[in-house]
């Protein structure tokens, strides 16, 4: 019904259908997403004849000609250096000391260290790989079934795009023309809410199935363990401290904070003797591979957005949807369903560049705050990281452990459900994402 309404509103023809079919076919054939987006965009522009082919090159350049995008490779590189220097292990030690007094303490520590890593790298896949290598074997030794241990790490790593600073918020800010620093501030409470929901879910599951025993520790012993962990690893928190203070105080832009974090992390690695010049080629290649996946998608999103705008798809989508119902609650639920479905089959970056310009007018039409819309969108897409059939984090932890993706996905269902509850709260309760913002943005 919605598709028919959209078709009647925009009068779509083969200049729309053929590129869409081409995009789906290329994705199914495992062609890189940026190539599929580029092929669809170019085909759409050529068939419509509304924009000369010579303008596509200019669109590709302007799509990535943004100072804010410099922060993306910097945060990715910071995460790589963090792992190489062993500072991520210090995060785990402190997290374990914080939670060792509870039953299920190491499971909770695993989730916390995912959040700590997220606050630096801004990448979920990097967090899943780094934390998974450190914790999954120990989780299994502690009594957790291997599929559940993998699911726990995959869920915790979702905070990589939800807790600021986040690459996803930099990209959606670029696409919609919103300050990344503003989005970081707005995402702080929702990101922590997701982290707490994962912690609570793990505690409940541990209570039900008694995966991990322990917690018989007095206050003095707990404080002693925590003090020892902080004494031996306090310097690891200099990096996230610089990032958070710099961005949220307004003294540093996200790009400047990323650059500072890279330099400080490298210096700490040299001072500790855990980083050598011979480590740099591997780190730079690893970061370049991740960055090489993200930036071409952003570049080709510009001509695609122009093609969709020329054809009137975003405006037609709003007209078609509001023609079916004008109830804001139903429309918000529809947007969430679209985002979660998209997150199940495609990564965050292409989803942002394709769906944000289409759904944003609908959010504006029902009076949703644009900041709240961005937070809702990224959080809903984040659920897709542990939801089949794609579930990027499921593939990452499966790759490093050899565990079946289906078994991991089955154990991830409780985490998906609790994360969905947080998404609904963010969508229907604006203060969750606007409380920390200056009045001008509310």
TrEMBL record:
Regions crossing the membrane: 20-47, 59-78, 109-136, 148-172, 178-200, 234-252, 258-278, 290-311, 331-359, 371-396, 408-429
Location of this chain's protein in the cell: Cell inner membrane
UniProt keywords, alphabetically: Cell inner membrane, Cell membrane, Membrane, Plasmid, Transmembrane, Transmembrane helix, Transport
Domain TRAP C4-dicarboxylate transport system permease DctM subunit: 20-431
Membrane topology (UniProt): Multi-pass membrane protein
Pfam families reported for this sequence: DctM
GO molecular function, one term: transmembrane transporter activity
InterPro entries attached to this UniProt entry: DctM, TRAP_DctM
Residues spanning the signal sequence: none
GO cellular component: plasma membrane
Origin superkingdom: Bacteria
Subunit architecture: The complex comprises the extracytoplasmic solute receptor protein and the two transmembrane proteins.
Protein task: Part of the tripartite ATP-independent periplasmic (TRAP) transport system.
Family: Belongs to the TRAP transporter large permease family.
Protein name per the record: TRAP transporter large permease protein
Organism: Leisingera caerulea (Phaeobacter caeruleus)
């Amino acid at each position: 019904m919605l598709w028919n309404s959209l078709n009647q509103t925009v009068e779509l023809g083969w200049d729309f259908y053929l590129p869409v079919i081409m995009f789906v076919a290329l994705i199914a054939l495992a062609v890189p997403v940026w190539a599929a987006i580029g092929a669809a965009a170019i085909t759409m522009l050529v068939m419509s004849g509304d924009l000369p082919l010579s303008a596509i090159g200019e669109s590709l350049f302007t799509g990535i000609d943004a100072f804010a995008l410099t922060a993306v490779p910097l945060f990715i590189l910071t995460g790589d250096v963090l792992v190489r220097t062993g500072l991520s292990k210090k995060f785990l030690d402190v997290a374990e000391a914080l939670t060792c007094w509870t039953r299920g303490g190491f499971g909770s520590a695993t989730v916390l260290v995912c959040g700590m890593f997220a606050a630096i790298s801004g990448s979920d896949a990097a967090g899943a790989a780094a934390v998974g290598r450190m914790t999954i074997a120990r989780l299994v030794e502690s009594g957790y079934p291997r599929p559940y241990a993998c699911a726990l790490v995959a869920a915790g790593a979702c905070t990589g795009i939800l807790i600021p600073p986040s690459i996803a918020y930099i990209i959606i800010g670029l696409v919609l023309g919103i300050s990344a620093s503003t989005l970081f501030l707005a995402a702080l409470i929702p990101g922590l809410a997701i982290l707490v929901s994962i912690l609570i879910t793990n505690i409940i599951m541990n209570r039900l199935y008694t995966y991990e025993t322990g917690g018989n520790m007095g206050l003095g012993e707990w404080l002693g363990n925590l003090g020892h962990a902080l004494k031996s690893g306090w310097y690891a928190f200099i990096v996230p401290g610089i990032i958070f203070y710099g961005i949220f105080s307004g003294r540093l832009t996200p790009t400047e904070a990323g650059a500072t974090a890279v330099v400080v992390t490298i210096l700490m690695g040299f001072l500790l003797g855990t980083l050598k010049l011979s480590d740099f080629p591997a780190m730079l290649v690893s970061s370049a591979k991740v960055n090489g996946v993200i930036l071409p998608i952003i570049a080709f999103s510009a001509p695609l957005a122009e093609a969709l705008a020329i054809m009137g798809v975003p405006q037609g989508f709003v007209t078609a949807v509001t023609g079916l119902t004008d109830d804001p609650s139903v429309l918000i639920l529809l947007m969430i369903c679209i985002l979660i479905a998209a997150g199940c089959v495609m990564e965050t970056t292409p989803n942002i560049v394709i769906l944000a310009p289409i759904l944003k007018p609908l959010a504006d039409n029902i009076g949703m705050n644009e900041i709240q819309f961005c937070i809702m969108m990224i959080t809903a897409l984040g659920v897709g990281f542990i939801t089949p059939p794609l579930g990027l984090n499921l593939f990452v932890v499966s790759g490093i452990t050899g565990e079946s993706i289906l078994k991991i996905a089955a154990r991830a269902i409780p985490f998906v459900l609790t994360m969905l509850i947080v998404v609904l709260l963010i969508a229907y309760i604006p203060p969750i994402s606007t409380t920390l913002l200056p009045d001008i943005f509310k």
